[in-house]
Write a structure and sequence with these properties.
CATH architecture of one domain: 3-Layer(aba) Sandwich
Helix content: 40-55%
CATH superfamily of one domain: ANL, N-terminal domain
Structural class: alpha/beta
Number of helices: 23
Radius of gyration: 25 Å
Distance between the termini: 65 Å
Largest sheet: 8 strands, mixed
CATH topology of one domain: Rossmann fold
Shape: globular
Strand order of the largest sheet: 2-1-11-10-12-13-14-15
CATH class of one domain: Alpha Beta
């Protein structure tokens, strides 16, 4: 059986001199071959072995997505060790918890932001013996860490020298890795308390790479642009599939530059979370709102026709009428051409995962000729469990089940999953593992769903179901999704109402969209915080709630809401590093506001 390092080595043997990766240096995109990645990884492995790390030692990577993340990951695995990813934005307390829980021996960090957090907790992480920094550290950081800190280039050179003198020793480490050995320990985002370490084996991830490859969605000749955090299991599967298929992986400079990078790299596919699709959609609507003259009128009219077509399709009807017919001739071709040009001109599809894709967003891109393949999986299932295919797609679902995985719906509606992709268990948490995995191998996903033929549809999150005082069950995510997609200035909505007599909500606004909208209305000279409380803004939000409420059952309608003057963020602790809302944190932070809704 294969390991991740063995499938990487196979690709190096077949395509060593070919381009594996692209990254931007000095304003220009440069190519990196498979053999060059292999060489750096060997050096990293040599460095770790020279530092005395034993097989199965845990090594952390605390950095943004970049090529050094990949070469360090490969080097860790070649040394027979286990990679523990940490989100680059994680606060010091979470970093300390993960490092100590996993007994991390060595840390690869990106730059000053991460180094400072490590300095802050240095005395509380006794297992760590060294930190390798990808970027140049400040004089203060060097002094604070002393011999603990090693620049990446220096570590690579030291490791290369060790590898040249001890090649058999280092290679034996890589060759000695077994399929059931621990590949990575991925800590879940922790929307409800401390994160749990999810144990993913080499075989778990090899299965995922093989299963995705067998769908023929991704081809060896593809070019992918990667910006997703490699601390997330979604990106980890993309990494493994890249090793398996040998296509080209381009690394985005940063999230704000993703769209610009798409125009430069011209990827044939890209994976993303729904938030990015929502942001692009909001920009399109904002541009239409501000565009002057006849072109602006046509754009606003065209978007209105597209919204009507989406409403019809969501009800199971075919869109029609003179307006939609004209829009398809006058507006939609220009929209499609503009988006394709912005995305580089040769995009075959996007893959969406990590959170539910709002159906109206999916239809907007469909109408614009952009294919989004929505998939589903969890950290505990090594990511991909189901995915739509270009030739087998049903919007509003997460696609058919991957070959080699079983999915069933329990009596209470919970999605149960079994197969080679299901994790080994939670690190140091045997009781939690027993609760999650049945003796016969079925994993409790915690998600609710149903099958529509071969297509799986997610209907809610079991733990998030609200039971009102009247005994009605409400899945808040679906309503929140409708609200956000109905209002381009809305960023987040968190519905509340468990054991309450009606539902209420906290709302945050999208700063760029709000400022752009305000400019079109002639509202100037106000800060973002001031704008959130402007009567005209409150009217827009009120109209949105009224519109969405009209489509809901009486017990699902939102009776009261409040707009915050700031958005949620990772730094505030209200979003996970993968940008999911921490409902418990929002509930605690704004308890007084929620309580006030019910005091009248």
């Amino acid at each position: 059986m294969s390991t991740i390092t063995s499938i990487f080595k196979d690709t190096v043997a077949r395509h060593g001199a070919q381009t594996a990766a692209q990254l931007k240096k000095g304003g220009a995109w440069v190519d990196v071959t498979w053999s060059e990645i292999d060489q750096v990884a060997k050096s990293v492995a040599g460095g770790l072995v020279s530092k005395g790390l034993e097989p199965q030692s845990r090594v952390a990577i605390f950095a943004n997505t970049r090529l050094e993340w990949i070469t360090s990951d490969l080097g860790i695995l070649m040394a027979g060790c286990t990679t523990v990813p940490i989100y680059q934005s994680s606060i010091a307390d979470d970093v300390q918890y993960i490092i100590n829980d996993a007994e991390i021996k060595f840390v690869f960090a990106e730059e000053e932001a991460q180094i400072k957090r490590l300095i802050e907790i240095k005395e509380q992480i006794p297992h760590v013996t060294g930190v390798v920094c990808f970027a140049e550290a400040s004089a203060e950081s060097k002094e604070a860490l002393g011999d603990w800190l090693i620049p990446f280039a220096e570590f690579e050179a030291m490791g290369e020298a060790y590898y040249q003198e001890n090649q058999e020793v280092v290679d034996a480490r890589s060759q000695g890795v077994e399929p059931n050995d621990l590949l990575t320990l991925v800590y879940t985002s922790g929307t409800t308390g401390r994160p749990k370490g999810v144990m993913i084996s080499h075989d778990n991830m090899v299965y995922e790479a093989e299963a995705v490859a067998n769908t023929n969605i991704i081809k060896p000749e593809d070019v992918q642009l990667l910006f997703l955090p490699l601390a997330h299991i979604f990106a980890k599967v993309l990494e493994a599939t890249w090793f398996k298929l040998g296509h080209v992986m381009a690394f985005a400079e940063s999230i704000p530059k993703v769209v610009d990078n798409m125009g430069e790299v011209r990827p044939t596919f890209m994976a993303s979370v729904p938030r990015i699709f929502e942001k692009v959609y909001a920009v399109v609507k904002s541009v239409a709102e501000t565009k002057p003259g006849l072109a602006g009128k046509i754009a606003r009219w065209g978007l209105k026709q597209e919204e009507k077509a989406t409403t019809a399709e969501l009800k199971g009807n075919q869109p029609g009428g003179l307006g939609w017919s004209l829009a398809q001739k006058i507006f939609i071709p220009k929209l499609a051409t503009g988006l394709q040009a912005k995305f580089g001109g040769r995009l075959r599809f996007f893959i969406s995962g990590g959170a539910p894709l709002p159906p109206d967003i999916a239809y907007f891109y469909k109408h614009a000729g952009i294919t989004i393949l929505e998939g589903y999986g969890l950290t505990e299932t090594s990511a991909a469990t189901t995915v739509n295919r270009p030739d087998q797609i049903k919007l509003g679902t997460v696609g058919p089940v991957l070959e080699g995985t079983e999915v069933m719906i329990a009596e209470d509606g919970e999605i149960m999953i079994r197969g080679r992709g299901v994790f080994q268990g939670y690190w140091n948490k045997p009781e939690a593992t027993k609760e999650a995995i049945e003796p016969d191998g079925w994993f409790h996903s915690g998600d609710l769903g149903a099958f529509d033929g071969p297509f799986l549809k997610i209907t809610g999150r079991k733990k998030d179901i609200i039971v009102t005082a009247g005994g009605k069950n409400v899945a808040p995510q679906n309503i929140e999704s409708k609200l956000k997609s109905s209002c381009p200035i809305m960023s987040q909505v968190v519905i509340h109402g468990d054991k309450r007599k009606f539902l209420s909500a906290i709302v945050t606004l999208e700063q760029d969209a709000l400022m752009g909208w305000a400019a079109t209305k002639g509202i100037t000279g106000q800060s973002f915080a001031e704008l959130t409380q402007h009567p005209a803004v409150k009217q827009v939000i009120d109209d949105t709630f009224k519109t969405v409420n009209s489509t809901l059952a009486r017990y699902e309608t939102i009776k009261k809401w409040h707009i915050l003057d700031t958005d949620f963020s990772v730094e505030s602790g209200e979003l996970t590093p993968s940008l999911k809302v921490k409902r418990n944190v929002v509930g605690a932070n704004y308890k007084d506001i929620y309580d006030a809704f019910y005091n009248d």
